[in-house]
Amino acid sequence: MRVLSYHLELDLDRGPDHFGSQSQIACEVMQATDTFLDVSPHRLHVVELDGVTLDPTDLADGRFPLHLDAGEHRLLVSADMAYRNDGEGLHRSVDPADDTTYIYAMSFLDAAPSIFGCFDQPDLKAPYSMRVTAPPEWTVLGNTRASQVSPGRWELAESAPLATYFVTLVAGPYHCLTREHDGIRMGLVAVRSLAEHLDKDADELFGVTAAAFDEYHRLFGIRYPFGDYYQAFVPEFNAGAMENPGCVTFRDEMIFRSQVPDGVRSGRARVIVHEMAHQWFGDLVTMRWWDDLWLNESFAEYMAYRVTDDVTAFRDSWVEFAYGRKRWGMAADQRPSTHPVAGNGAPDAAAALTDFDGISYAKGAAALKQLNAYLGDEVFLAGVRTHLRDHAYGNATLDDLFGAWERAGAEDLRAWSMGWLRTPGLDTLRVGEGQLTRIPPADHPAQRPHGLTVRRVDADNDGRDERLQVVGDATALPWGPEAGTLLIPDARDETWAKVRYDEHTLAALPDRIAEVTDPVTRGAIWLAVRDAVADGDLSCELVLDLLVAGLPAETEDIAVSNLSWWADVFLVGQYLGGDTAASGRVAAALDRRLYTAAPGSGLQLAAALGVAEVSTDSPRLRRWLDGDPPEGLAMDTDMRWLTLTQLARRGGASRADIDAELARDTSSQGVVHAARARASLPDVDTKAAVWTAILTDHELSNAQAYALCEGFWRAEQSELLQPYVARYFAEIASTASFRSGWLVAETAQLLFPSYAAEPATLDLADALLADESLDPGLRRSVSDSRDDLRRAVAIRAG
Ligand SMILES: [Zn+2]
Question: How does 523-538 read in b/e, with b if 16+ C-beta sit within 10 Å?
Answer without folding.
Answer: bbbbbbbbbbbbeeeb
